[in-house]
Automatic annotation (TrEMBL):
This is Methylthioribose-1-phosphate isomerase. The active site is at D240. It comes from Belnapia rosea. GO terms for biological process: L-methionine salvage from methylthioadenosine. The keyword Lipoprotein does not apply.
């Protein structure tokens, strides 16, 4: 995708030295476009943990490059590095998926061969995600095109950021939106602010604006009102983990949007790559670990002042504690369907098996 006309992926190896890893510092967006340089696996782990880099597919790719950086420095450190990287974020299954790929690739190799193999595998993971997301866009496009052709326009509501900043390229939930826009359809996106970290207001709005897609940022609690008044035609969100029966873990607040969509008869679709499927988990509410983040993300807000300074202010009364569950689980019964790189299906074990018969039992 492009920023100011320049094409980027969200993670890449620095072409000047051929080994350090570059990525956008997402904690600085949208106020400034800062590019980080990772030179060791500890910096990769910090970037993931601090959410300088976030989005389920992207943290998997960055973790894979973190392994490559570790193998460059000490190819005997594989068994130490993998569990530490895996512990940086607990909910997104893509992280474990990418690290499992690196483990399978490297574990039986001689140490002198590990660095080159780790870089090659990380690049393959990144390329796989970019192509996967492109196909998700193609498979989701007909849903938007049909509405736009029937009504003359389409209003989409999304939650959190599931665009190219959350993946290696294109995005999941935003990929069909980009393709619909590029095909000439009249697309408008309602962008939930997505408290407490405001990924919608900061990142999704930044992406859509850079691509020229019409959008409006709304408070998280405005979605139901918009649906009641016919202002939403379809909801599309991304996800950090999908169970074998189709339950969906996504940014906190997704479940409430799904409930409102069901009450108002609005399609609620979830876009995901194969790396987000967790065949080992059936009941998402009971089995998916939900990350509990620092309460300061709830009590404090960061923004740009009128004179251009970036400041953090407290918005909660002193002495009041804050809880901060980062994700919730939307049961499969509330999901209209899943958009994957292999096609669309119902949110159920039978639906997923119809698209992934080759991997369902692995």
């Amino acid at each position: 995708m492009k920023i100011n006309g320049t094409p980027y992926r969200s993670v890449w190896v620095d072409p000047e030295d051929g080994w350090s890893v570059r990525l956008f510092d997402q904690t600085r967006l949208p106020w400034s476009v800062d590019i980080l340089r990772l030179t060791n696996w500890e910096e990769a782990a910090h970037a993931i943990r601090s959410m300088q880099v976030r989005g389920a597919p992207l943290i998997g790719a960055v973790a894979a490059y973190g392994v490559a950086l570790a193998m460059r420095a000490d190819p005997a450190s594989l068994d130490q590095v993998l569990p530490t990287l895996n512990a940086t974020r607990p909910t997104a299954i893509n992280l474990r998926w990418a690290l499992d790929r690196q483990r399978a690739k490297l574990h039986n190799l001689p140490v002198e061969a590990r660095a080159a193999a780790a870089y090659a595998e990380a690049a393959a993971i990144a390329d796989d995600d970019a192509e996967t997301c492109r196909r998700i866009g193609e498979n989701g496009l007909p849903l938007l095109a049909e509405i736009a052709e029937r009504k003359g326009k389409v209003n989409v509501l999304t939650h959190c950021n599931a665009g190219w900043l959350a993946t290696v390229d294109w995005g999941t939930a935003l990929a069909p939106i980009y393709m619909a826009h590029d095909a000439g359809h009249d697309v408008h996106v309602w962008v939930d602010e997505t408290r407490p970290r405001n990924q919608g207001a900061a990142l999704t709005a930044f992406e859509l604006g850079a691509h020229g897609v019409k959008h409006t940022v709304v408070a998280d609690n405005a979605g139901g009102h918009l649906m009641q008044h016919g202002e939403v035609d379809i909801c599309i969100v991304g996800t950090d983990r999908v169970t074998r029966q189709g339950d969906v873990a996504n940014k906190i607040g997704t479940y409430l949007k799904a409930l409102a969509a069901r009450d108002n008869g609005i399609p609620f679709w979830v876009a995901l790559p194969h790396s987000t499927l967790d065949w080992r988990v059936r009941d998402g509410i009971a089995e998916i670990p939900i990350e509990e983040r620092d309460g300061v993300e709830v009590t404090d807000l960061t923004g740009r002042t009128a004179d251009g300074r970036i400041e953090t202010v407290r918005v909660v009364a002193e002495g009041s504690p804050a809880a901060n569950p980062a994700f919730d689980v939307t049961p499969a019964r509330l999901v209209t369907g899943l958009i994957t790189e292999r096609g669309r299906c119902e949110a159920s074990e039978a639906g997923l098996r119809s698209l992934y018969p080759d991997v369902a039992e692995q």
